[in-house]
Specification:
elongated; alpha/beta; 19 strands
Length: 404
Amino acid sequence: MRRLRACLGAAAAVGLAAAGTTALVAGNASGATTALSNRWYAAAPYLMPLDNDPPDAAAIMDATGLKAFQLAFVLAPNGGGCSPTWGGTAPVSSDTAVRSVIDTIRAKGGDVSVSIGGYGGTKLGQACPDAASTAAAYQQVITKYGLHAIDFDLEEPEYENTAAIRNEIGAAKILQQNNPGLYVSVTTAGTADGTGWFGKQMLLEAKSQGFTPNNFSIMPFDGGFNGAASQTGALTNFNAILQSTFGWDQATAYAHEGFSGMNGRSDTGEYFTQADFQTVLDYATSHNMDRFTFWSLNRDRQCTPADNGGRTSGTCSSVTQNSWDFAKYSVKFAGVTPPTGTPTPTPTPTPTPTPCKTAWSSTAVYTSGNEVSYDKHNWKAKWWTQNEVPGASEWGPWQDEGAC
């Protein structure tokens, strides 16, 4: 979200670490470790842990099978300075609230990434004097929370500031070098052509510095988009931009490309439904894209009837849905089928039918042990008998051996 995020106190949408095959390790509250595949970090949807009526991460995990969350957003202090804060107001150095959320997630076998930047507030790339000091500020976040993934959400108005973007890209490169295994993504605005002039300048800055993140992601919303077809068209065009900028072939460009959508009603009144998410997910997986995420889990629930469809909210989607419908697409991207909520009953095995014996005859003579079939049951003679119908009497000469 863009304008909405600015007035709600945090910042923009998108970020996260890229996919791959190396397992990353997340420490839980008890000190044990749980390995997550890189694909989980690439699928992590956004969660604002301190704003926009934060949902219970543990409940989402239980309901959907989701394991990874993208926490947003780290900014410079509102009063100035080059130190990391949550939303410009809560210093990372003294934080306990976000730490508690992270511990809860890790205790259930999940992990988090952190997104820095966004639309609102002052970014560290703007406040810090150079790339080294910008990187040092972000390193505090990585060290504090033991992060394995981080996202640089570079969009307006910061990406219109050449010096700030130079600091951010330089910091990303330093962090990548100083934290082996750290997965870094860079997210920027999306347009029908892929990304705009400032987005292209940001890519050129990355090229000039020799920096290649795990993925560059675009946000194809808030720009005249209308459903999934317009979004997949933007992703196709962005792929061409990546090819021409970095000299990659198409497959390599897709392997470094990501999508970050907005569930429900966007800031500009566009609508993206569950069907749109499925279409973009199919595009992303069929093209072997590196990332699929969305803004946000705080919005992944239905608004009250009076508001549904009539406004853009930071706490609900404004489309008809069940809670956490959109999170399930992230789970699918990670390669795991989400639970349906209702256990599938175990089918009762169909018994193999017993073959029927020779049909009973009223004229035949039967002695003890002889077997016949009658009325779809097998019968065994208890003693000598003739012309006595099987089953006619409970105390008769025939013993019922069951259906055949």
